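Repro:
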Amino acid sequence: MEEFHLYSIILKITIFASIALNAANSQELGTPKSGGNNQEASYFFYQRSEYPRDCAEVKAQCSNHNSSGVFVIKPEGFDEPFEVFCDNDIDGGGWTVIQRRVDGSINFDRSWSDYKEGFGFLRSEFWIGNQKLSFLTNQKKYQLRIDFENSVGSSFFATYEAFRISDEFSKFRIVSVGQSTGTVDSFIETCPSNMVFKNCSCQTSCANPDVCEDTCSAGDDESCICPEGFFIKGDTCVHPQACGCYLTGRGVIPDGGSYVNDDCTERCSCESGTLICDSSFRCDANAVCEERNDTFGCHCREGFKGDGKSCTRNEFTDCHDVYTSGLRNNGVYNIKPAGWPGSEFEVYCEMSNGGGWTVFQRRQDGSVDFYRTWDSYKTGFPDTATGELWLGNEKLYYMTNQKSYKMRIDLINRDGVSYNLNYDAFRINNEANNYRLETLGSFTGNTGYDYMAYHRGSDFSTHDDDNDDYDYSSDYYNDNCASYYHGAWWYNNCATANLNGDYSSSSYSGVALFNYDTYTYTYSLRFTEMKIRPV
């Protein structure tokens, strides 16, 4: 499609109805009229009490006064009368002017609200307002006329036989315009569809991208030129990306750009219009060849960094490092805390609730036995980190002593109600100190009770390594809290939290919480998850 462009224009849009009336005038759109005599703006008493509905009715009521000017109308259904400019000088008169542009004195780059209510001055530039226009065009059948004038004074117009817009609910949509007539075509200059008509300026070409060349004819103030951001290529305008090297089956490679084939065995680059291909190109062993953003290339696997042709392993000390590297999916990642004497190990990273949480405990279905030995809790279990797990006290010690960490515990009871406990500091000691819960910060959460406070400063205990403060024994009671509660934990004089208890039990030895203030148990939690993140 060809795009047509006018010189600097005066634009006037009018509405015509087959019936007519008359009122008075003012200068600013929406400003109430004042009394007084004025030769330029005459005032009239209407022959009937109701207001005319448009300029056609204004003209019909005051047929002895046919001059153009500002009058008051009130379309059917509109709340209050308002002023409009009536044009009685063109094509029989009675035209209600809805828009005028003549000198650029009014800014038309405005908000929805401004265009709804209207703006400007009725004797210069204005927009009548979409709300008024909607009521106007829905009370009768109207014609639309658009009058133009170019920079050398030539006038032309277009008319449309049926013009109507919808209401605000339908976003003032144009419902109809009808067939057009007029004299527009003979005054319009056309440009190719990929060019615009504007002030002459120098342009950049694909052949010489660093130099802006003058392509305008001598004496021309305006011409058909490429839009901003486009380059000339032959007799057309193209995006800069289209200037480059042509590769059969792939199109143009932009100058300075490159292309990798779909099995990543060849890489071609465009250098100063010359295509250079490297058939020895290969992806790194820790990279994959895949299409991203419509382009094939080598991309390092998760846990590795580089350009795809060379990838090195990321060195993550915790899940927060994983998160800040840009990896944002929940899942299993390899980490190596500072000072850790062994190789990397797997952890489950949770990227919700701010992201970067390293999970060190999870209970969800009872599939894993948590009634285990000291060594088992030291190294962690099971091997996978996707189901029920205890990360391992030795790993947790190195992690919590490399940075300052906070802890979050998420809980779901058997009725499906969710709870959380949050502590702004968390750290455990080493094995020589029985992995003591050395630091437990301030509590926040929605449980209504701080279930971990009772365990602050307590050593870790298992059924085969008793380090708790409980020292009462009898034929019925066992003084090892881990045995008594069928779990492993930082037991004090036993427990207010027993999250590593027997999943199948519905008593204190289950996955349970105890409130010392009310002496009530919450038995058999369905889900628990403990995790840490740097402060």
